[in-house]
Design a protein that fits this description.
GO terms for molecular function: beta-N-acetylhexosaminidase activity. With 566 residues, the protein is of the alpha/beta class. The chain contains 20 helices and 17 strands.
């Protein structure tokens, strides 16, 4: 029996009555529809109506788009759905996770670099305000992963770092702030990413910590956010062999499943040991970590049978719906278990007051609410976060500060700049523009027009033309790559820093903080964590000495190597 008066629902008698009556009004197909939270790809109303009036989904998520368009799409969905929808967004870095013009406050690692819990709270407030303005009520955030493995290509700047205590402190502050503003969080990715060097988007990854190690780290982080009242947990396609073996003695290696298909992790660990009473959702099920673990026809109903309450995204919604119904027919999934899952889905909706807002017609605010997107206060907060986060990792050559008097002629190299899966953009033009405003002469290395003969032009040919070299790297996390490392330009690594003993050289990363693994002996290294104009503006102030470097290292930027510290 689910206690709907207990944490995290705290429903009154009226709320419980709505949950029970709504559940009772649904036939089996209607209940199964509530289990699904697909990703939206269109604002075409005919297609949207198939979701709300056909399968009658329980929730949905869209990638960011123009705020007005996103808001109108959400309004149509809520207007045409009999039961209010959970509408989600990846609000990991601010309002830009729901609206393209929303505030890009900063990646979680940037927030961690401030070592200021108030910044995590402000991130949560911005996420709730701006996400709410376009009609979102569910944040797929915060990320509770601990970035233990610098080789992991997807956790990286999306985490609050590698210190479990800081991760717990920041995650709790975000959770409390966003919930105070009427939005649900989804703490993720249980049982915890960042240990394996591999990405669960591409395979079933492994959390290889022992039971004792997990309890002292991930376990405490999750316990703190559960205690803070997190409404939902997102479960990753991540196996935890130590706990599976502890909870299921004799389990075979082949029987060790990703958490999304592992009842011992969902029920014994998350529900019973950690005491989580809220909604459990899978991570995106088109990810290979899920699809490679079990035949999809079986995996779809098994995920709910194992303890997940909601099924995120689809290869084919119609096909997955049919698989879920067939799983009930064949006994993989019982209707009793479906009722439990739908009860929790409805209870979250009631806890957010969505049933009342449905009656009032206020599930999605009016167009005027969009004025909060990138409003003056939020921009000011983002600027504060940028100022407090930029981190001087090392300056063993004492190059800083720089000025047109000391280093007038700069040779600038850009790395990356493609937009990543979770936001970001090419900030190099803004960086170069700001340098020129300061009076520097900037030459941008053009890797597409490398003069082969110039590669062998000697030291003097370089030092006669330039006073210093600056690398600005924006290598973002993507869900299709196995590493986030530097690839130098042909021929022979034309843009690599072979000249660090010949002229002052610095490396700045506005994304991956671990590039010292590939440029260990560059003597001046700066981490800035997020590719935003706010960060670039703060960075320039620090490079020229008008502002001090205030950020702390939220991870080990030296990657455990001695030569990276030289």
């Amino acid at each position: 029996m689910i206690d709907l008066k207990a944490k995290p629902f705290h429903l009154d008698d009226e709320g419980i009555k709505w949950v029970e009556q709504t559940l009772a009004s649904l036939d089996l197909a209607g209940k199964v529809g509530q289990l699904f939270c697909p990703i939206g790809f269109t604002d075409d109303k005919t297609q949207l109506a198939l979701l709300t009036q056909g399968i009658k989904i329980g929730g949905i998520m869209f990638r960011p788009g123009p705020g007005e368009m996103v808001q109108e799409t959400h309004r149509y969905l809520q207007d045409t759905s009999d039961i209010p929808l959970l509408i989600a967004a990846n609000l990991e870095a601010g309002g830009n996770g729901s609206a393209a013009e929303g505030t890009f406050f900063g990646k979680q690692l940037q927030v961690a670099a401030t070592d200021n819990t108030e910044m995590a709270r402000k991130l949560g407030i911005i996420a709730a305000r701006e996400g709410g303005a376009v009609g979102c009520n569910w944040a797929f955030a915060p990320i509770l992963d601990i970035d233990y493995n610098f080789r992991n290509p997807i956790t990286n700047v999306r985490t609050f770092g590698s210190d479990p205590q800081r991760v717990a402190r920041m995650s709790k502050a975000y959770t409390e702030a966003i919930q105070e503003h009427g939005m649900a969080v989804s703490i993720k990715h249980f049982p915890g990413d960042g240990v394996d060097e591999r990405d669960q988007h591409l395979l079933t990854s492994i959390n290889s910590l022992s039971v004792e190690e997990w309890d002292a780290t991930f376990g405490k982080v999750y316990a703190d956010c559960i205690e803070a009242g997190a409404h939902t947990v997102m479960v990753g396609h991540i196996a935890h062999p130590a706990y599976s073996r502890e909870l299921r003695p004799g389990i075979t290696d082949l029987g060790i499943m990703p958490a999304t298909l592992a009842p011992e992790l969902l029920n014994d660990l998350l529900r019973n040991k950690l005491g989580f009473n809220g909604l459990i959702t899978t991570d995106a099920t088109p990810m290979a970590g899920f699809t490679m673990a079990m035949k999809r026809e079986l995996a779809v109903p098994t995920s709910i049978a194992a303890g997940c309450d909601m099924f995120l995204f689809n290869k084919s919604l119609e096909e997955d719906f049919a698989y879920m119904m067939k799983g009930i027919e064949t006994g993989i999934l019982t209707e009793e278990r479906v009722n439990e899952a739908v009860t929790r889905i409805l209870a979250v909706k009631a806890a957010l007051g969505l049933h009342k807002k449905k009656q009032q017609g206020t599930l999605v605010p009016e167009k005027e609410a969009l004025s909060v997107l990138a409003c003056e206060e939020h921009v000011c907060w983002a600027q504060e976060c940028a100022d407090e986060s930029v981190t001087l990792v090392k300056d063993t050559q004492e190059m800083l500060p720089i000025s047109p008097e000391s280093h007038k002629r700069l040779l600038v190299f850009t790395l990356g700049g493609e937009e990543g899966l979770f936001g970001g953009a090419d900030i190099a033009p803004h960086f170069i523009s700001k340098l020129k405003e300061e009076g520097f002469e900037v030459t941008l290395f053009n890797k597409s027009e490398v003069d082969f003969s110039a590669m062998f032009g000697g030291v003097k040919a370089l030092t006669d033309h330039y006073d210093a070299a600056v690398y600005i790297s924006n290598l973002e996390t993507h869900s299709n790559q196995t590493v986030v490392r530097i690839n130098w330009a042909p021929p022979f690594g034309a843009d690599m820093p072979w000249f660090i003993q010949e002229m002052p050289t610095m490396f700045i990363s506005v994304a991956n903080p671990y590039h010292l693994i590939d440029v260990p002996r560059i003597p001046t290294f700066i981490n800035a964590y997020s590719p935003s104009n706010y960060v670039v503006d703060a960075l320039i102030e620090k490079l020229v000495g008008r502002s001090s470097f205030k950020g702390v290292n939220p991870v080990d930027p030296f990657c455990g190597y001695w030569d990276t510290q030289l």
